[in-house]
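Can't attach files on this board, so I'm pasting raw text. These are the components:
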Amino acid sequence: MSDKQHNRKETSKPETSNSESRKADDNERDNEDDDKADDDDDNNDEQPVRTNLVHELNIKAIDDILHDQGHDLDEQATKVDKRRRQFLVHELKELFESKLGAKHVDYGQSTASIVKNCCKELPSDNDESFYIVNLSHYARQYHQWMHFLGRIHPFYAVKSNPSSFIIEVLAELGGGFDCASAEELALVQKICGDKFDYAKRIIFAHPCKSISHIRQFRDAGVQMTVVDNEDELTKLKEHWPDAKVLLRLKTDDRHSMSPFSTKFGANERECITLLRLARKLNINLVGCSFHVGSRCLDPNLYKESLKLARRIFDIAQQDEFKFDFKILDIGGGFSGHNWDKPSFPEVAKVINQTLDKIFPESEGITLMSEPGRYFSSGGMTLVTRIIARRIHNLDYKSNEKIVELNRKMSYVQSSSENENEKSDSEKALIESADNIYYINDGIYGTFNAIIFDHKVFIVHYIKINDDNESCEQFKSVVFGPTCDSIDCIAHSINLPLLNIGDVLWFPDVGSYTSACASNFNGFQTKKYVFIWKN
Amino acid sequence: MSDKQHNRKETSKPETSNSESRKADDNERDNEDDDKADDDDDNNDEQPVRTNLVHELNIKAIDDILHDQGHDLDEQATKVDKRRRQFLVHELKELFESKLGAKHVDYGQSTASIVKNCCKELPSDNDESFYIVNLSHYARQYHQWMHFLGRIHPFYAVKSNPSSFIIEVLAELGGGFDCASAEELALVQKICGDKFDYAKRIIFAHPCKSISHIRQFRDAGVQMTVVDNEDELTKLKEHWPDAKVLLRLKTDDRHSMSPFSTKFGANERECITLLRLARKLNINLVGCSFHVGSRCLDPNLYKESLKLARRIFDIAQQDEFKFDFKILDIGGGFSGHNWDKPSFPEVAKVINQTLDKIFPESEGITLMSEPGRYFSSGGMTLVTRIIARRIHNLDYKSNEKIVELNRKMSYVQSSSENENEKSDSEKALIESADNIYYINDGIYGTFNAIIFDHKVFIVHYIKINDDNESCEQFKSVVFGPTCDSIDCIAHSINLPLLNIGDVLWFPDVGSYTSACASNFNGFQTKKYVFIWKN
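---
Top answer:
C-alpha cells for the assembled complex are below.
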C-alpha cells in the first residue's frame, strides 16, 4: 500500500463558509481516508490488497503519513504494548459488526465511493440525511496518540461528540474521559458500567461546577477535578472535600480558533491566592491543568503553557504552601486531521521536547490530556439529499419590474432601513444565484458548527439520476431545511445543475456538530450507518 | 380589577443583549402578567379578588388592555361563541391540574412572586434550571385572537414551541396547526389522535418539502400545503396530486426581525409561471399564502401583502388559468406581547380594515393564519441558578504585571492577531467586569435565541440567602454553563453582588428558545413547572 500512487480525482470540492477569511490551505485537502485512496471505486486495479491484520494496516497508515512528512518513526516510538492494542482493535471490530451492523470496508476505499454505495443500498424512496461513521477511525487515532504522545494519557472530551460508539471504542482501548456535566458522566456510566475505574479514568474537567453535579461525580467514585477561583474551592471544601484538585491555569490562547481564557483559568497571581486558600481549607491540590483553546494553531502555546505549569508546580511546593504536585493535564486543542498545520506529529514533537526538559520522566509526574476534536472530527461524514430546488429563471431575474408595479414588494433594492450591511450582501448573493438548493440538514443541525465552531465545511456532490453529464458550474445557494432564512449553509458556491434527490455530502463532521444540534422545526440528522475500515 | 392601580416595583431589569441597537422601548416592559400585577406578593391589600370565572377574567384582562389603548370593544367584537370557549377553558384548567399538576395561581400574582414561591417549594439541594409554564396564557391568547381577528382561523406554527401542552390547549379550543415537517405532524398526531380533522386543521406550510414528508402528510389525511417554485409543483403532481395548494407569495419583509423572503416565496411573475404550470399539470390551486416575516414591525406590510394576494386572486381567475381561489393564509409575524409597537390590536385593526375592503366577508373566502410567537412567547419563564462565581479581585486586576513576567501569557493586551475587533471588545468587557457569574442555561440552550432569533432577554434576580441588603450595582458578566467561551449571555450588565445559589430569571422565553436548544455539554433546561392563572 505504501508503494501505491494515489491519484486524487475529486468530483468537486467548493468551500461552503460564511467566513471568507478562513479559506486556508487545509480546506483544499480532503479527509485522510480520501488522501490515501482513489475516488473511483470501479477501478479495481488500483484497490489495495485486503488484509485482516487491522492493526498492521492502522500502523501502516500512520507510517505513510509520517513518511510523507519526513518523520523518523523510531525516534518518537511509544512504549505501549502494541500487541495488546492489536488484539483489542480486532475484538472491537467483531463487536461492532454484531452490535451495530458495521460493514467492513477496504482501507483504500475512498469516502466518495463509500457514500455512493451507502446511498445505493438505501431503499429508493429514502431521502433522509444520515451520518456514515467510520468506527476504526477512533481506534486509529488512539494508536496514533499512543505512538506520538505515549507518556500522556488521553481523556476524551465527551462534549465534542457524546456518541456512545466513540466512548465504547476509547474505553476499550484504555482511554479516560473528560466529563463536564452530570449527564456526560451518566453517559459514560451507562456504557462502561460499574467496574470502570472512575477514580483514575474520569476527570470532572469543569472549573465552574453546580453542586448537584459535584454530588453525582463524587457518588460515582470520580476523584479528579479542576478549579480556578476561590468560590469553587470553598464549594469543594463543603461538598467534595476529598477530591484531587488541579489548578486550571489561564493560558495564552490567541492562536486558537475557540479560545477559552475569557471564561476559565487562573493567572499566576490568582494561583497564588488559590494555593493559599487551598492550604487553609486543607484541599488536596495535586497538580495543574490548562487548555490552549480549541484547534490550537501554534504549538509554542503548549510550550509556554508547560513552562507556566512548571512555575506553578515549583511555587506550590514552597514552604508557604507545601503541595507536592504529581499530575499535569495539558488539556485539548489538538486538530483531528494530519493535514492541519501544525500537524499532530509536529505538535507532539514540541510537547515531547518541552516535557523532556521540564517534566522529565524521572520526576514521575502523571501526564494527562483532554483531546476531543482529535478523536471525533474525522470519524463522521454527513450525507444529505437535495429535497427541493429553485431555478432562478428569467421571471425571477426580471424581478425589478415587479418592484415598480407593486411598490416596495421585492427585497432586491438595497435600503438604509435594512438591518445591516452583512445581511444586505447575503441577500444580494442569494438574489444573484443561478440555482437554489434545499437540503435536509442545516444551521440548526450539523451546520451549527458554522456559527458556534467557526467550521469550514467541504461539500461534495453525487448525481443520482445522472442523465446530464455537463460540467458547467453555476452560482448556487444551499439552504437548510427549516423555515428560517438564517438557515443558509452556503450563500455562493459553484455547483453543476443538480436535481432533487441528488446527494451533497460533507466529510469530517464528527466534532461539535451533532453534539450541538437542535431539533428545530422537527429536522435533525438521526440516522447512522456504521463502517469499519479494514 | 380594571379599577385597580398597578404599581410596578421591579427589583431589577437590566438588559442582556449582544445587539445594542435592539434596546427598543418594548424591552423596558415586563411581561403582561407583571403589567397587571404587583411585584410584592406580601402586600395582600393590593391583590385582586380571586374568582373562579376563568373566562370572565381572561376577557376582563383583554378589556383592560384595550381600555388603556383607547379601543372600542364592541367595534371589533368576535362572533365566536364565547360561552363554548368559556366552558372549554374551564375544562382545560381541570385537565391540566390532574395531568400536569398545574397549580392555580391568582391572576394578579406577579411572575416575580410566582418564581419566588416555586424556588421555595423545591428541595433545598435542587439547583436545576427550569421553566415555569403559565398554561392559561395560551387560552387567553386564543381568546384575544378570536376577539380581534375572529374571521381568521389561527393555525399555530408548531416550530415556535413544539411543547405538547401548547398543542393540547390550542387543539381543545379549536385551533389548527402549521406543521413544517413530518416530525411536527407526528407530534400533533400523538396529541390529537385519529379523530382530529387533519384535512381542515393542518397545513403543511413548507414550500420546499422532502418527498418522504409529503408521503406522511398525505397518509395522515392532510390536504393543504403551499408551493412557491416549479419543481415543487412537479413533485406534488407525482406524490400528492390531490393536495389543495396555496401559492406562497414573496412579500416585502424588510421591517420584520426575521425576514423569510430571501428563502421562500414567489413574486408576481413567478406566480404567473406557476399558475400556468399548475393548470397544465392539473394541480388543485386553491389560494394564496404569504408571511411578512417573524415579528413584523410595520402593519402596513400586511396591507401590502393582502393587496398583492388580491391581485394574484384576480389573475388566477383569468381565462388563461381559471382557478377559483377560496383560501387566503396571511401567515405569521405577530408579536406575543401587547406592549410591542405595533400592538396586536393595532395590527389586527389594519388587517381587518384591509380585509373588509378587498376580501369582504360576502366573498366567502376562508381566511387562515400561522401565528407561532403570538401564542408561545409569553407562556414561559426561565428560572436559572448561579452555579459558580468569580470575583474579580485585586490579584486579577493587576494582571498586567503577569504579562511581563510570563511573556504573552495573558490575553489582556489587544493584538492585531486577534480574530476580530468584536471579540476584542467582548474580551475587554469581560476583563473589566467586577463579577462573573455562571448560570445553568446558556447560548446552546434557551439563549440560542440571542443568536438565532435576535432576542433581547430581560433578567431579574432573586437573592436566596439575602444577608446583604446592599443595592450597590457592579458591572457583571453572565456566562452559560458549557465549557465554550462563546457561551456568554451578557458581557456587561449591572447586578448587585449575588451568591452561588441565587436565582436569575427571564420572562417571556416561550418562543424559538427551547425549540432550538441543543444538549451540548450535557446541559439543557428540561424541567417544567406548570401553573394556571385564575
